């Protein structure tokens, strides 16, 4: 795969950040530059870019322990 031969892997088109995984780069672009928060709290609708941060919020703030 040619892509993995590139030093730094995938680079962001908006800034100089680089990522080893394409999916990480796409997530970075969506959350940092497009202000998307794909993971949102089902209770207060606050959004996060990372699923673990969202889960932790739900557990801590709303007291939901699964
Ligand atoms: Zn960027
Ligand atoms: Zn919430």
TrEMBL record:
<dbReference type="InterPro" id="IPR036236">
    <property type="entry name" value="Znf_C2H2_sf"/>
</dbReference>
<dbReference type="GO" id="GO:0005634">
    <property type="term" value="C:nucleus"/>
</dbReference>
<dbReference type="InterPro" id="IPR013087">
    <property type="entry name" value="Znf_C2H2_type"/>
</dbReference>
<keyword id="KW-0862">Zinc</keyword>
<keyword id="KW-0677">Repeat</keyword>
<dbReference type="GO" id="GO:0000981">
    <property type="term" value="F:DNA-binding transcription factor activity, RNA polymerase II-specific"/>
</dbReference>
<feature type="domain" description="C2H2-type">
    <location>
        <begin position="10"/>
        <end position="38"/>
    </location>
</feature>
<keyword id="KW-0539">Nucleus</keyword>
<keyword id="KW-0863">Zinc-finger</keyword>
<dbReference type="Pfam" id="PF00096">
    <property type="entry name" value="zf-C2H2"/>
</dbReference>
<protein>
    <recommendedName>
        <fullName>C2H2-type domain-containing protein</fullName>
    </recommendedName>
</protein>
<keyword id="KW-0479">Metal-binding</keyword>
<dbReference type="GO" id="GO:0008270">
    <property type="term" value="F:zinc ion binding"/>
</dbReference>
